[in-house]
What we know:
The protein is of the alpha/beta class and about 220 residues long. The protein has two domains: about 1-65 and about 150-220, Rossmann fold (3-Layer(aba) Sandwich), CATH 3.40.50; about 75-140, no CATH class. About 40% of the residues lie in helices and about 20% in strands. The chain is built from seven helices and eight strands, in the order E-E-E-H-E-E-H-H-H-E-H-E-H-E-H. The protein has helices at about 40-50, 80-85, 95-110, 125-135, 155-170, 180-190, 195-220; strands at about 5-10, 15-25, 30-35, 55-60, 65-70, 140-145, 175-180, 190-195. Strands 5-6-7-3-8 form a five-stranded parallel beta sheet, with helices on both faces. Helix 5 links the parallel strand 6 and strand 7 (about 175-180). Helix 4 (about 125-135) runs parallel beside helix 5. The longest helix has 25 residues, at about 195-220. The mean pLDDT is about 90.
Amino acid sequence: MSIRITNLTKRFGDHVLFENLNLELPAGQIVALTGRSGCGKTTLLRMIAGLDKDYTGTIAGIPDRISFMFQEDRLLPWYDARRNLEYVLKDVMDKAAIAAAVESMIEAVGLKGHEHKKPDELSGGMQRRVAMARAFLYPADLLIMDEPFKGFDVALTEELIALFERLYVGSGRTVLLVLHQPDIIERLGCAVVDVAALAASARMQRDQHQLGPVENAQRE
């Protein structure tokens, strides 16, 4: 089922970020949100995820299970890498199934030998591997990722993209992520939503509606 956003309006005080925004996000695809800094990409992700409910309008078609990978890795500092992975499965699988799933994921993402290290003992790239592994490990129908490849050098970015591709293939999940790099968007085969352009279009339609048919004709 696609995610349908209808007449979404979001304000921060007197600042109107979105007004009567309408958007449909296809299911089972990778959708990239693009647009200039500050245009509302992360805010839109948070509203879709249900983390920000201070808006008017409707967001429909959200699945029950959502996995969110934030810009910050947000690993639990008192747990090692393995326990961080196990934690997201504690309410959805029994212990034997959790152990098997986590062991398989550790192998898949190259964490073998590092699984007993706590986050502050891991490199930045390894922390991001754990965060991505955790996001994919949770059995969610919708995976939300806020700039998952940002802040790393070329070699590590390539490793993370390849890791994403391995984990995503055949999953059938809907993935909604913020991306800025056209080459990565093309490589992943993303559907693209320019959030800034979409918001501007919604405002333009509002202005035209407020002007009325006579004033619109005069403008044209």
